[in-house]
Amino acid sequence: MSTATLASTSSPPAASAGPKKGKSLQREALDRLLKNKSAVVSGVVILFVCLVGALAPVLAPYPFDEQFLDRVLIPPSSQHWLGTDSLGRDMLSRLIYGARISMAVGVITAVISLLIGTFYGAISGWFGGWADSVMMRSVDILDSIPSIVLLILVKLVFDAFDVIGNPELKALTGMLLALSLTSWVSLARVVRGQVLQVKQMSYVEAARSMGASGTRVVSQHIMPNIMGPVIVLLTFQIPSNILYESFLSFLGLGLQPPFSSWGVLANDGWRSLQSYPHLMISPGVAIFVAMLAFNLLGDGLRDAFDPQMRGR
Fold first, then answer.
1. For the whole model, what pTM was predicted?
2. 28, part of any domain
3. Confidence class of residue 129 from pLDDT cuts 50, 70 and 90?
């Protein structure tokens, strides 16, 4: 056997020249999310609705409060694609402006709830003991009150203190405050449970043995490792808040005409559903599509962050 043959048979394959670099957990989760077609499509739909709401003054064919008294309650046509309401206002324009209010309320209140619930749950789970017991019993008391009753109570208390003169800003602020103060409870429970689990891990014990402060351990070692379930829960909280906003506006406790939100439009359309169904169909479809998109995106994120799905 020649020397060249011996060299060729003894040389290792090129693939084993170095170790294969593994993917991070975040990268694997992103790859799994991108493979979920329904989640990707839902994300595109959510982004589209947010852009439509943000660009409402540019995209809306008419101002949301402009009245055409000679075109009252006309069905969809070339001039008004979704028809007009009982005051001659263009339904498409009001739907576009309503997307701005409804999406803003859903997202802003969910983010505020995330901050409150994360802070509260992290403190409760980290300290434990009597502090955890007192904090969780307080959460149990809040959770025992029906959400809609607590929402209405907070909204009415805020409206009793007339500190904001602008009626639109007052109604919007009251709704944001009511939803933010009532929707953080479930987030606090999830964060507490995750902190109780993660603080027993070896890397947390190692950081504490090296003299890291509790604040540093929680902010740099615990929180980055529990944000997956928290983000998933956040995507389910947003459509819930959108529905609550629509329900409050439907009851007359949210924004009031001429200001526009999907709940306000649904409330207006309900009064004349049998005679003019187009007034109810468009806001109803908008609420349905937005909630479905957020729920499908939440399902996709839940599967993407699931440790059991790793490697699939």
1. 0.79
2. no
3. confident
